[in-house]
From TrEMBL:
Keyword terms, alphabetized: Iron, Iron-sulfur, Metal-binding, S-adenosyl-L-methionine
SUPFAM superfamilies assigned to the protein according to its UniProt record, in alphabetical order: Cobalamin (vitamin B12)-binding domain (SSF52242), Radical SAM enzymes (SSF102114)
Domain B12-binding: 9-143
Molecular function terms from GO: 4 iron, 4 sulfur cluster binding; catalytic activity; cobalamin binding; metal ion binding
Protein name: Anaerobic Mg-protoporphyrin IX monomethyl ester oxidative cyclase
Provenance organism: Rhodoblastus acidophilus (Rhodopseudomonas acidophila)
Cited NCBIfam families: BchE
Amino acid sequence: MRLLLIHPAYHSGGAEIAGNWPPAWAAYLAGAIRKAGYEDVSFIDAMTDHIDDDELARRIREFKPDIVGTTSITPSIYKAERTLQIAKEQCPGVLTILGGVHATFMFKQVLTEAPWVDAIVRGEGEEIIVELIRAYESGNWLEARKTVKGLAFLETVDGATQIVATEAAPTVKDLDAIDPDWDILEWNKYQYIPLDCKVAIPNMARGCPFTCSFCSQWKFWRDYRIRDPKKVVDEIENLYKKHDVRFFILADEEPTINRKKFVAFCEELIARGLPDNVQWGINTRVTDILRDEELLPLYRKAGLLHVSLGTEAAAQLKLDLFNKETKVNDNKRAIELLRKNGIVVEAQFIVGLENETAETLEETYKMTQDWKPDLANWSMYTPWPFTPLFEELKDKVEVFDFEKYNFVTPIMKPAAMDRGELLDRVMNNYRRFYFKKALFSYPWAGSGMRRRYLLGCLKAFLKAGFQRKFYDLGKVGYWGPQSKNKVDFHFDESRKMDAATTGDWKAAAERSRKMQAQMNPADIKNCGGGDEQMSEEDMEGIDETVKAARAAEQAALGADQSHRMHV
């Protein structure tokens, strides 16, 4: 059994300006596949290697795989579909598999527009992919696939083709049993520009108990689970010793959510002496930083160098819309605390909703001058079609070209300006912010790692700007304010959107929120809300709520053993 995993060749001018990021999904899936006894697994990173269709076809043809699998977030879905189409063209008998968050919820549309996809893996793939391989190996794939939980596929009955989704598979309960195969990656390719070193994206926890309206991660992972901190440090130590990885970013939505385990993680890193050689970064919430003020020196000692804060919006109106339930002044205080403790802090702003104006964009810039973060990032609002906020705003969404759903392209058109002006004002914020940092801040940021890191970030930013890769400026034809009326985002207007399928997809955070609402609506908290969120007592409460929700779900499933969705 020959298996080939392929990372689709999608580029957007977003996060990749900081370097080449190793596709962690391939390592985690390859580890599960090999652990199950299937050793003949290979990987092609078409994104990092800039592999075009002809070269990809040649490599697939030479490898002669039995199964080809790829993954996709929303903006890379068309590249992923094309990848599997090429596989079918070169090896007609190959089994083509697609996974990832977009395919999980949009499987009806994907299978309709890409009928060459033999099966879609819905949700976490480590356990489902092994069951899928065994079903295929049985020699009776068309029948065996119906017994595998977590799949969606096309089935022809009496000459009519229908879409079938099998019962949703349970989430992976024992994360510590997952053993990623990082050896499948060619590590010389994955360089992090700010520190000129190899970078990795390990995973400490999956899921989130909060329900931010613009986020799809809590819905995809369904329930919150966290690994043994020592197991995570084992993985990081192995990455350092075996592959010379000297910077990593935890893939978690919010690694500080369980303070006790995050502290244990930091202490384990220190005990093994890893901070002498390995630095790292995280994304987290403002309220966690305020909560952990006394622990910030420990976090820095453990090697935490870069914290990206979900400040999200300067205007309180937007914070409320996003269900953030945090206050603008909280953002300023959190930034001050991080900088005081020698940690580089990045402020994240979501811009480009339909109520955006020149004044609100200017307000975000003024906030950066007041808050004084080391880095700032203005991300275009991207209306994931499977999120609650999309349901609220869908009547205002005009663009259904998913390739542009990448945080750098203005999908929404503000009522008060066109998309070209929106891009120009965002670029104006970037120019002013980083010009001042380059002249008056970074060169004088002391000595040692912090100064080196900030100058490295400036280098990455300038390099991407010079190459016209930042925000896809070269592709859209933006050359400054004089070109804002000539910008062309090249939207494919022929693309249409089908409805997401989430009815059978039960997220523990959502169930928890509904249960809390029934008991005491005042107790409901969202991402970023509250004063002392996620203490150990909070975590125990979440665990009990998740257990109750799971029990209710199992009871419901038990009442319908033939659970299958025909569309």
